[in-house]
Amino acid sequence: MDTLSVLGPIARSSIVDAVVERIRGEILGGRLAAGSKLPSERELSLALGINRLTLRAALAQLEAMGLVVTRHGAGTIVASWRERAGLDALGALAKALGPHDPARNELLAAILEVRRVLAAEAVALAAERATEEDLATMRAVAAAQTAHVHDPIAMALGDVAFQRAVVRAARNVGLELILNSFARLPEEHPELVAALYDVPERTLEQYSLITGLIESRQSRTARELVRAALEQADAQLIRAYAARVGATPPRVTPSARTEKPRKRMKEKS
Predict the structure, then answer these.
(1) Chain centroid, CA 82 distance in Å
(2) pLDDT of 123 over the 90 cut
């Protein structure tokens, strides 16, 4: 079979996406500093080997992401992504940073911290709003996870499914959309998944604890205990990831309520 006929032409949208990923990586990696001016369209299109229409489509996407600003008469300026980008930049930021970059380890700590906030609040709301059908869904997802203990990627995807069941039980569409920003991480960053799910039994244990807290209908207690349990677990995960890549783990400051969360959970169950 003719290889060329199998491959076919590259869609223009694919070229645009490749250009977006390239420039976005340079911006998020700090190699294109905020406030700096990009080369002219002519220079940039020649450097990237693309035509101007493709470049303009890519720049339009980057502007929509909050990464660049096009000003009439001034050209295209690199924006401050910390002030303009959204949560969907997390995955791209992780790609832009090398495994030994200290900023990557700090990013992992930040991602886990946001996850803790999301999880604690979602569980608290679910404790007030979950139906028996919601609880049944959580139990079913948790039961299915036992088959994935030797497959980190499948474990991570199942974990997202469990988190989604909890968030949906919270009846808050904003939390669902935030979760979507994290749902892509397992497939985009398998090296992170290998560290995050290195002890699958610990993840399985968390499911029963979370389900029990939601069943208790004590939202305030649920919020505190989930946050405390995840702080301890995440500190271990950060150390494991740092050891895997040979980096120094960032300092994690625990809250005042992290003392013996597992014991307190069992007392409240």
Answers:
(1) 16
(2) yes
For residue 106, what are its two tokens?
């700090």
Domains in the chain: ranges and CATH: 3-84 (1.10.10.10), 89-268 (1.20.120.530)
Q: Which of 248, 142, 243 is nearest to 195 (CA)?
A: 243
Alpha-carbon span 119 to 172, nearest angstrom:
12
User: Interhelix angle for 152-170 vs 102-129, to 10°?
Assistant: 40
CB 156 within 8 A of CB 141: no
Asked if 52 contacts 15 with a C-beta cutoff of 8 angstroms, the reply is: no
Summarize pLDDT for 129-153 with one digit per residue, the tens. 999 999 999 999 999 999 988 888 8
Q: Provide the β-strand partners of residue 71.
A: 75
Mapped onto helix, strand or coil, the DSSP state of residue 70 is strand
DSSP 76-89: EEE--HHHH--TTH
What distance, in Å, lies between the first and last C-alpha atoms of the chain?
63
Structure tokens belonging to residue 252: 């994690």
Over the stretch 205-217, which tens digit does the pLDDT of each residue have? 889 999 999 999 9
Contacts of 223 (CB under 8 A, 6+ apart): 120, 121, 123, 124
